[in-house]
Automatic annotation (TrEMBL):
GO molecular function: acyltransferase activity, transferring groups other than amino-acyl groups
Identification of the protein by name: Esterase family protein
One Pfam family hit: Esterase
Organism: Cohnella herbarum
Domain of life of the native organism: Bacteria
Amino acid sequence: MALLQCEFISESLEISASMNVILPQGKLERPFQTLYLLHGLSDNHTIWCRRTSIERYADQHGIAVVMPAVNRSFYADMSHGAKYWTFVSEELPKIARSFFPLSSEREDNFVAGLSMGGYGALKLGLSFPERYAAAASLSGAVDVNRLATEGFGGDISNVFSDPAAVKGSSADLFALAERAADRQDIPMLYQYCGTEDFLYDDNVRFRDHLRKLQINATHVEEPGTHEWGCWDRQIERVLQWLPLKRD
């Protein structure tokens, strides 16, 4: 595998942006299947490589992994900040494919993340089911409406101009799931949360919401808190779960 740190100019962010990329090594028989792997609130594009064995896991499956930096944006076009939703949903895939031999086919593209990144992964998968074959959330901040109304971490006011308007909007995963429920192309969904995690109750509500909508999803829970030992185990399982083309 090759591990690259890539610095590039982002037009949507109007800054020099960063991403780490893992690429399979060897003969290129077709454009690489790709996992967009998203970080949490307090992390950046380097954290998955620093705290898990993602490079080793990706090597076992022959998959490319793109890990962008989005700061504390909640994967949104921020009210007071940059357009990170435009960046991650529109600009990033195009730029990554212009630099590296990554497939643009839906069946070859997947997204996953932890905590804030778990929210971002489900937001991408439910907003653009025609682009992603699977989306996985690990200890995801799935109820952003609750976090917004409670003023989570002081960051929400920077993200949303009116936190009270989050419910039912395109930022609300519960609303996105309702809008996607009748589609035939909903991505495969994977939702994990540890039973001692402070986001566990939110994840239970979202799990039950998907079941009520009759949206099929793989739900996994086990003893655990909001920590990297859990996420390292789970990202290995996510790669095993993905519908990869295995030679």
